[in-house]
Design a protein that fits this description.
The protein is mostly helical. The protein has seven helices and no strands. It has one domain. It is globular, with a radius of gyration of 19 Å. The protein starts with 20 loop residues before the first helix and ends in a 9-residue tail after the last helix. One of its GO terms (molecular function) is thiosulfate dehydrogenase (quinone) activity.
């Protein structure tokens, strides 16, 4: 009598992206923590949880999640970025980006798409803060970008995430996402 094999193992990860258990778990922790940073910013700005966003300035209370940051820039590119502060489409794009990147990282799916979106957000925030105060090139935004690209390159969504399942059920045409 033949036994049915699990479809979850029908498409094993390429050998080059399989990691030993300890590094895989370390990268999963990095992925989840980085996702939590994005999700926390989304939640705090949406609901005004009182940490970086007061309740009366919450997005749901009619506040703008971009005004606080973009409206107080002092760098060389400040005038261009400050003009975007408080615009509805900028607020919506920023909030959707934080939610999408954070959720993808925590769930371990679409890590390439999360790396692209997160790089765009962090890259623009890096540009908006030029010149940097402590280092001419590197700040936390660049570190986040590097971490975002390490995660899909190492298959970090397969450990404690839905990455392995998405490899099986996501159509081949969409696999470039993650």
């Amino acid at each position: 009598m033949a036994t049915a094999t699990s479809n979850l193992h029908a498409h094993p990860a390429p050998a080059a992206t399989r990691l030993p258990v300890a590094p895989a778990k370390a990268l999963a922790i990095l992925r989840i923590l980085l996702g939590a940073v994005f999700l926390w910013a989304f939640l705090d700005k949406t609901f005004g949880l009182g940490f970086s966003t007061k309740p009366e300035r919450a997005w749901l209370a009619g506040g703008s999640p971009t005004t606080g940051y973009l409206g107080n820039l002092e760098g060389a590119l400040a005038p261009g970025f400050s003009a975007l502060a408080g615009q509805g489409w900028v607020d919506a794009a920023f909030m959707f980006g934080m939610l999408a990147v954070g959720a993808a990282l925590v769930l371990g799916v679409a890590l390439r798409a999360a790396a692209i979106g997160g790089t765009m957000m962090m890259g623009l925030m890096w540009l908006s803060s030029l010149p940097l105060a402590n280092n001419p090139v590197i700040d936390d935004h660049i570190i986040y970008i590097a971490a975002l690209w390490v995660l899909p390159a190492t298959g970090a969504g397969r450990t404690w995430g839905l990455g392995r399942m998405s490899e099986t059920f996501v159509p081949r045409q969409l696999r470039f996402l993650g």
